[in-house]
Amino acid sequence: MGASYWWMLLGMAIATYLPRMIPLTFLDGKELPPIVSGVLRNIPYAVLGALIFPAILHIQEDMLFGVIGTVVAFSLAFIGLDVMFVVIGTIAALAVYSLF
Questions:
Q1: 70 with 56: CB under 8 angstroms?
Q2: From the CB of residue 76, how many other CB atoms can be counted at a distance below 10 Å?
Q3: CA separation for the pair 8, 29 (Å, rounded)
Q4: Residue whose C-alpha is closest to residue 77's, from 58, 97, 53
Q5: In which element (H, E) is residue 79 found?
Q6: Residue 87: CB atoms within 10 Å
Q7: Taking residues 19-31, what's their average pLDDT?
């Protein structure tokens, strides 16, 4: 690997580290207003939806696969499960569907 790869790796590491380090440094011991903490708590669901929804519309082979995944994911998120459980539950449901 050339030097440019190491510089790129270092730049990506800094770009990933700074957005995580700055809030931890400046918000240590402080409590956020309820509206801000509510928004921050819902960001993972919003990002997950923004990443997955376009793929649902572009499924070529089996459109029902995307519809089932969407319904399961929305249902699990609606009952208040963690993002990780929503993803795992959706994968499990689609694995069962793909067996049939």
A1: yes
A2: 19
A3: 34
A4: 53
A5: none
A6: 16
A7: 83
